[in-house]
Amino acid sequence: MRWFVNALIVFVLPSLMSFSCDDLPRDQKGTVDRIEQTHELRVGLIENPPFVIRDGDEPRGVEVDAIKNFAASQNAQPVWSWGGEQKLMKELEHFNMDVVAGGILKSTPWKSHVGLTSPYVHEQVIATPPGENQLIKRLDEFLSDNKPQIESQIAQGETVQ
């Protein structure tokens, strides 16, 4: 009987635990699930060249390009909203935005109120709603995979289409 209990512990329990870990990390408020269902990535933009440049209705910049490509990789379209840092970070904090971009530094005073990606170049990060760890993980992986292109764009001080 003891061998049965040991076999259960060694083989069955880890298998059951692995099923519950398939989609880790998880988002507290299900941001990734909402993006997948609506096919929209709600993006707050703070003008800060070369990261985000306001050029009429269509934004440009290093982070704008990265977010367009990230959204496409998630089968989503970005929905842009312009604003100041305080307004957009409050929207993010209350889960009314999915990401905020604008050359935000990792030392931002908002770091205890919102989520942040790892610095993808220098000290720049992209902000996310607090606790949305699956979104942060996906963004981090995307930014890491595209770091050479992003660094090249920053070095040129312009966007590359």
Structure, explained:
The protein has helices spanning 2-19, 31-38, 62-73, 85-93, 133-145, 147-156; strands at residues 40-45, 53-55, 58-60, 77-82, 99-105, 115-116, 124-128. The protein is α/β, with parallel strands linked by helices and 161 residues long. It has one domain: 3-Layer(aba) Sandwich (D-Maltodextrin-Binding Protein, domain 2), CATH 3.40.190.10. The strands form two sheets. It has a five-stranded mixed β-sheet, with helices on both faces. Strand 6 and strand 7 (124-128) form a beta hairpin. The longest helix has 18 residues, at 2-19. The protein is globular and about 70 Å long. The N and C termini lie far apart (66 Å). The model is unreliable at 15-21 (pLDDT under 50).
**How helical, in percent, are the residues?**
40-55%
Euclidean distance between termini CA atoms: 66 Å
Q: Describe the biggest sheet?
A: 5 strands, mixed
Helix/strand-derived category reads: alpha/beta
User: Whole-number radius of gyration?
Assistant: 19 Å
CATH topology name, in short, is D-Maltodextrin-Binding Protein, domain 2
Q: In terms of per-residue confidence, which ranges show pLDDT below 50 for 5 or more consecutive residues? A: 15-21
Can you list the strand order of the major beta sheet?
Answer: 4-1-5-7-6
Mean pLDDT rating: 87
**Count of individual domains:** 1
Total beta-strand segments: 7
What general outline do the C-alpha atoms trace? Answer: globular
Identify the CATH class.
Answer: Alpha Beta
Portion in beta strands: 15-25%
SSE ordering: HHEEEHEHEEEHH
